[in-house]
């Protein structure tokens, strides 16, 4: 997530450069600030496991991270603000949905759970407020810039970004499965 978030922050910075309305600028800047504020959570986890920030930064990016982040940045460089925000939304909404689901699930254990802070972060009201701001910005841009003839291309961007988001999550699950001891 740490390496991913660095590129995701760059994409939000690119989005900011494509906006001009003050409310849109404020909303996108708040999202960028939330991403940058999220970095310490990942740094803390890695430091608990003896991994420094320098060590993380020197790790090669997984193919799934490269595919996803570079796709989003490519959409941002080649398209307008609405197309870029469309590519960003699966991550924004997906993490909120996952965090809330885990936070509200009575089976989720927090005591002794090494991922409790992660779950709490993505279900936290400040994070969810950022998600609501991003969704509101998306609705505003879609209302201003989307016409029926753009729906298919925007849907394709969203679908591709969702597939890449899913592959990014699956990467972690695949790695965890590969660490399990087999009889």
Please describe what this structure looks like.
The longest helix has 29 residues, at 151-179. This protein is 80% helix and 0% strand. It has eight helices and no strands. It has helices spanning 2-17, 22-48, 53-58, 63-78, 81-104, 116-123, 125-145, 151-179. By secondary structure, the chain is an all-alpha fold.
List descriptors.
183 residues; globular; mainly alpha
**Morphology:** globular
Q: Evaluate the radius of gyration.
A: 17 Å
Number of helices: 8
End-to-end C-alpha gap: 31 Å
For the secondary structure, the number of strands is 0
Strand-residue fraction? under 5%
Write down the overall mean pLDDT: 91
Q: What structural class is derived from the secondary structure elements? A: mainly alpha
What is the structure about, briefly put?
With 183 residues, the chain is mainly alpha-helical.
Secondary structure elements and pairings:
Layout: H1 2-17, H2 22-48, H3 53-58, H4 63-78, H5 81-104, H6 116-123, H7 125-145, H8 151-179
